[in-house]
Amino acid sequence: QLNGNGRKKDCRRGVVNNQLCSWSFHVDGVLHHAPQEEVYNRVARPVVLAALEGYNGTIMCFGQTGAGKTYTMTGATESYKQRGIIPRALKEVFAEIKRRHESTITVRLSFLEIYNETLVDLLQPGHGAMTVVEEPGGGVCVKGLSLHPVHNEEDALNLLFEGEMSRIVGDHALNRNSSRSHCIFSIYTESRSETSSDAKYVSSKVNLVDLAGSERSEGQVLKETVYINKSLSFLEQTILALTDRRREHVPYRQSKLTHALKDSLGGNCNMVLVANIYGEAAQIEETVSTLRFASRMKRVQIDPSVNEHIDPVLHVKKLEKEIQLLKQELYLQDIVANRTGMSYDRLSEIQVAEIRWQVKKYLEGNLADISIGSVRQIQEVFAQFKLPGGMKEGIGEVKGQGFGLELAGSNEKHVVHRTKKAKENQQEPQGLSSTSLTEQNRPEYELLWSHVNQSVCLHYRFPYHLIHPFTFMNSSPPSKEEAFEDFKLELGLEINCILKENKAVLIECRTKLKMLTDGVNAVKREIDSTTSMLQKSREHSEGEPVVEEAELALLLQLRELRTRYRHEYEELCRTRAEVNYCQNLVDQCRIRLLTDFEIWYNESFLLPEKVQVILKSGGSIRPGLVPVKEALALVSKIGLMFSTPELSFVSDV
Ligand SMILES: Nc1ncnc2c1ncn2[C@@H]1O[C@H](COP(=O)(O)OP(=O)(O)OP(=O)(O)O)[C@@H](O)[C@H]1O
């Protein structure tokens, strides 16, 4: 810290010199004449230990050439005592691994150099071109950079040494100056618990960055100076953008350095900047510039968070175990409840075919109920109901409106008339036949509907049995098709209207969904074409450090398109959910209409009127839910006798 903030009088000339001569900067600490161990303990140790808990970390040395960045980061290679942050961090990591018996920690290393906007793998020099690529979740990685697993400190130090050698050899061979390159030594760790079978594990990346000299010297080789000045000023711009909360865009992609450090310069990463400065007055200009950068960096908000992942293989194993346990539990419950022959496995093709057949018969009106024994069967029944074929078999859509029988339009009035007439002509049943309900085929089913905020819920009571429809011997009831038309205009009017309303809403939602889908696809096509234009433009300007005006316009356009895409896609998802919801309501209304119709039809045409009267006045007995035989037994119990020869029921089966 340089204390004071004032202007001083030039005594020799006897005039006030308006030049600033003292500055004040806020930093977290000053390491003056501090031994390397203290530097490591204060700067790096907390970051390294946090990395083993799953937090990313970045330590960056910034300052003018010769100010001690490499000394701080790597240390004096020949002196063990003066080793820097990297070797000490490696020692600490392996010491911790030995100490933490309860975890398996794997370590990998990489060593990247950025020289004149070119990426160099110091652990595999000359291996080929590398690029910085964005990863899902906001991270970045250098494609092509070699990652080296290491199992002990010695191997790790050897790799560090190898990397340093590559850097020196590169300097000689290519006649370049390593002071003018940035170096990023990265330690990647993954920590899994040994004791628990938990599929969760944590990972981290620690970037130890030795930046190129920050001075804006002009005595260097021109190209180097341009690149260094540009990449450091882009670094400064990025830091400025990160400190400004109003800025939406942070220009990470402007240089290889900021792009490679995208996930290390803020956000969820522990970050420490070491500002290396000369303690000499002659270097004051560079020192002030370095400290200005440091105090800006201090304003960057960070919010470190653990990188937690789930191992898919372990997770699947855990879920398989859970399924096994639940199956055993189900088996036990079946034994306790004395249920035999239950199967909870995936339905076979034969079982699916059987359900399809039952649904078809049900829709045709030839089956009063569908037998269901498991959740899988319920799902399959609903799936079959949803199939267009399943619905069309018996009762289908009429001109896209409402839900009706194939008899519609001009026939409608005639059908209603005929149905009413048929009802008038209906004679009282002429007695039960000997093949009426037996103990085995006596229905024990119950199907109740309840309204909850306009939606309909189904309650099942197990087990379900099939019931057999009855037919009249002497007088035939109206056909189901005719009766259904009649029903929709009378008792079923309300539910039919709700069904129509729901269908109208569904059609509206579907139209909106179609428009949104078209819109999203159009934006996607625009994004693709802009991206390919951008790629072409980049190919032309390969190696150029600055973004051209046309390229910038494309980038801005792409950003705008992506924002649009995101918003429209979100709207599309919302509408899709609405469509599904409406579709469910429509399905439920259809089933409700059909079920009410079945009940009404049975009551209206298959029970003698006297029985109907009793059932209706019974109060607690809900018409349509009581099996026919029980109703008849009830009638005989209360003494309402009717002579058996007059009635004649014949089982349909
Ligand atoms: N705190 C220190 N104690 C002892 N020697 C130091 C210290 N800091 C730097 N040095 C020495 O100063 C010289 C220059 O330091 P160093 O190479 O670390 O500078 P630099 O900032 O990395 O420069 P460049 O930008 O060229 O990479 C080295 O010989 C180094 O050993």
Automatic annotation (TrEMBL):
Positions of the UniProt region annotated as Disordered: 417-438
Localisation: Cytoplasm, Cytoskeleton
GO molecular function per UniProt: ATP binding; microtubule binding; microtubule motor activity
Family annotation (SUPFAM superfamilies): P-loop containing nucleoside triphosphate hydrolases (SSF52540)
Location of the Kinesin motor domain: 1-300
Database matches in InterPro entries: KIF6/9_C (IPR056524), Kinesin-like_fam (IPR027640), Kinesin_motor_CS (IPR019821), Kinesin_motor_dom (IPR001752), Kinesin_motor_dom_sf (IPR036961), P-loop_NTPase (IPR027417)
This protein's record includes keyword Glycoprotein: no
Entry binding sites for ATP: 63-70
Superkingdom of origin: Eukaryota
GO biological process, one term: microtubule-based movement
Family of this protein: Belongs to the TRAFAC class myosin-kinesin ATPase superfamily. Kinesin family.
Protein name: Kinesin-like protein
Species for this entry: Denticeps clupeoides
